[in-house]
Design brief:
Layout (H helix, E strand, L loop, with lengths): L1 H14 L3 H21 L1 H23 L8 H36 L9 H26 L4 H26 L3 E3 L3 E5 H21 L5 H29 L14 H27 L4
Antiparallel strand pairs: 1-2
Helix pairs in contact: 2-3, 2-6, 3-4, 3-5, 4-5, 5-6, 5-9, 6-7, 6-9, 7-8, 8-9
């Protein structure tokens, strides 16, 4: 038993997080997503809206360490409005809701005067686009009649990206991608994710979406690049703010943003890929 504990501790140290709680959280989140999409898809939209609010809270609290104070209630209202607009009016609704929310948030800064206006306005813009706007594409993925299949394809790609980057990096990772930002992320892990997620994309598009294999391979490739970028960007934010995690809500992961960092950047990528495929099919090109 002591040997097992020693092995587990060694894995946790090398990976930079506790493995077993992390797996437990991932399985639980997958079960929630599966249930909501298979039972009543609007529930999934509500879950995404809740994740938006929780993510906004983490960002607001993190920015306080840099003496940047944003209105959590205002950002929460904006997030709920953007989630609702995405569900009821699609991408146009999400875009219009974002365009309405941003100047409204800037107006809240006016009573404070011009001091630090640009800094606080930039923080509002980052928070609004980074969390509710990007997360809105999860709702857009789930919104059509085949939303279950689209989201399951996305789950497959994200799971492969995270899992194979993690275990490949753990096994043979030696060359770090961005040592000043994320010292645990390696080029070997990225390569492993690239290979397996591209292959998984080809299979998922063929068997789940009944689409051509080469399109799925390209989508998998794009998800790896965008998801990895999202992971590194969130790490850069944390490094700049000198914090380890954005929160502590999810054992083994940290906060909500620590769990969905790659998801936020990959969701628009897959949505665009599926939209291009749909339009190409409608026009007879595929």
């Amino acid at each position: 038993m002591s040997d097992l504990h020693a092995i587990n501790d060694a894995i946790n140290k090398r990976a930079g997080r506790k493995l077993l709680p992390s797996i437990g959280v991932s399985v639980t989140l997958f079960a929630i997503v599966w249930f909501s999409l298979s039972y009543y898809r609007v529930i999934f939209a509500g879950i995404v809206g809740l994740a938006m609010v929780l993510g906004v809270r983490e960002m607001v609290n993190a920015l306080k360490s840099a003496d940047i104070n944003l209105s959590f209630p205002a950002l929460s209202i904006a997030s709920v409005g953007m989630a609702s607009a995405a569900w009821f009016a699609g991408v146009n609704g999400l875009a219009v809701a974002t365009a309405i929310a941003f100047p409204w948030l800037l107006a809240l800064l006016l009573p404070k005067g011009p001091e630090h206006f640009i800094r606080n306005a930039s923080a509002y813009a980052l928070t609004l686009i980074y969390i509710p706007f990007l997360a809105g594409f999860l709702i857009l993925l789930a919104r059509p009649h085949n939303g279950f299949e689209r989201m399951m394809t996305f789950v497959v790609l994200i799971a492969c990206n995270d899992t194979f980057a993690y275990f490949t990096g753990l096994a043979i990772g030696k060359h770090t991608m961005a040592p000043k930002i994320s010292p645990k992320k390696t080029w070997e892990g990225f390569a492993g994710s690239l290979v397996f997620t591209t292959f998984a994309g080809a299979l998922a598009f063929h068997f789940i979406l009944d689409a051509q294999i080469w399109i799925g391979a390209l989508a998998g490739l794009a998800v790896v690049i965008s998801g990895t970028s999202g992971d590194l960007i969130e790490s850069a934010i944390k490094r700049d703010l000198a914090i380890k995690d954005m929160g502590d809500l999810l054992p083994g992961h940290g906060g909500v943003l620590d769990r969905i960092d790659s998801i936020l950047y990959a969701a628009p990528t897959l949505w665009l890929a599926l939209e291009l495929v749909r339009r190409a099919q409608d026009s007879g090109l595929l």
